[in-house]
Amino acid sequence: MRYRLPPLSTLRLFEAAGRHGSFKRAAEELGLTPSAVSHGLQTLEDWLGVMLFARTPKGPVLTPAGEAYLTAVEQSLSTLGAATESLPGRAPRGILRISSAPTVSLTWLLPRLNRYLEANPDLTVAIDTSHRRVDFPLDDFDLALRVGKGEWPGVVSDLLFGERLIPVAAPHVAQALQPGLLALEGARLIELSSVERDWSAWSELTGFTVPPDGPRLMVDTHAQAYEAARLGLGIALGRLPYVAPELENGHLVPIFGTPVDAGTGVWVVRGELLRPDLEVEAFVAWLKGEAKVMKNKGYFMDEKFLSTG
Predict the structure, then answer these.
(1) CA 24 to each of CA 15, 18, 50, 134: distance values in angstroms, whole numbers, following the listed order
(2) C-beta of residue 209 within 8 angstroms of C-beta of residue 225
(3) 95-160+270-296: which CATH number, 3.10.450.50, 3.40.50.170, 3.40.50.720, 3.40.190.10?
(4) R_g over Cα of the chain
(5) φ, ψ for residue 125, nearest 5 deg
(6) 125 forms bridges with which residues in the sheet?
(7) Burial class (CB in 10 A: 0-12, 13-18, 19+), 46
(8) Integer CA distances (angstroms), 90 to 76, 124, 263, 278, in order
(9) Residue 286 CB partners (closer than 8 Å, separation 6+)
(10) Which residues neighbour 256 within 8 Å (Cβ) at sequence distance 6 or greater?
(11) Alpha helices of 86-179 — where are they, by DSSP H?
């Protein structure tokens, strides 16, 4: 059967632009320029004879025809992606493509990765730490390390470890703080702009009041928050296990209280429709083993880092 189809490359542009509601974000995802995405979508619209996006001052907006077409294109691309992954006899690619939250990659995955690469010297690992959430099987990733509660539809999610919260500061800053629950009064708090609920979540979990109008320092990664705290710029909300190395080497110390469960964790995520892949399964098994070793070392024990009282 001969199919009358528009250029397939334009359908991929359309799916990404429709999903993001932005030509710019679609371009970033696909490694193109916004101009290239715009021209490709214009080619698709000309071929179809239908306007898929209304170009507005606030950005592109799907037309009713565009919304209907997007649903069909997403389903078709998903089916094609799953069929490609499940193709019998498909040879191993020798490469693992991983999407990871930046802090998880920097403080947990990378410090351990050399052990796996030494055992698998012919394997190439490609890590993407952009904040976007990948879409399986449309995006070309084998797995993702996501932070959250594991409630993502259409994927298989395995919990590696949970997160715990504890305020931390440089030793000289901690010594100058008021005792007990007054420690946060007048102190500069380091907040994460990339996290929807930071100190407010800790306040709800512990019942401790966080001064609403005190001085703040805003950063966008956990690594920056811990470095700012180490430099004496304020109090950071530490997350175990990421902050564990800073506590172990004494660069940071707990302020008060004990770590509390954040209700979130790091999950290894794969598309539920993808065929079993020996390279992926072996890497997932290794990740789970590393998480188990870390737990056995006591990174989740209240008393491990609290000898300062």
Answers:
(1) 13, 11, 22, 16
(2) no
(3) 3.40.190.10
(4) 23
(5) -115, 125
(6) 96
(7) exposed
(8) 21, 18, 40, 12
(9) 116
(10) 167, 180, 181, 183
(11) 102-104, 110-119, 171-176
What's the fold here for domain 162-263? D-Maltodextrin-Binding Protein; domain 2 (3.40.190)
CA–CA distances in Å: residue 257 to residues 180, 182, 198, 251, 307: 9, 12, 17, 19, 12
The ranges assigned to domains in the chain are 8-85, 95-160+270-296, 162-263
Q: State how far the Cα of 30 lies from the Cα of 12, in Å rounded to an integer.
A: 9
The answer to whether 148 and 268 have CB atoms below 8 angstroms apart is no
pTM of the model: 0.66
pLDDT (tens place) for every residue of the chain, 309 residues total = 667 888 888 888 899 899 888 998 888 877 788 888 898 999 999 999 999 999 988 889 999 999 999 999 888 887 776 666 566 655 556 789 999 988 899 989 999 999 999 999 989 999 998 777 777 766 778 899 999 888 888 788 999 999 999 999 999 999 888 766 667 888 899 998 877 678 888 888 888 888 888 899 999 888 899 999 999 999 999 999 999 889 989 999 998 768 889 888 999 998 865 555 778 889 999 999 999 888 776 554 443 433 333
274 token code pair: 């993808």
Asked whether the beta carbons of 246 and 168 are under 8 A apart, the reply is yes
Give per-residue burial for 239-255: e unless 16+ CB within 10 Å, then b: bbbbbbebbeeebbbbb
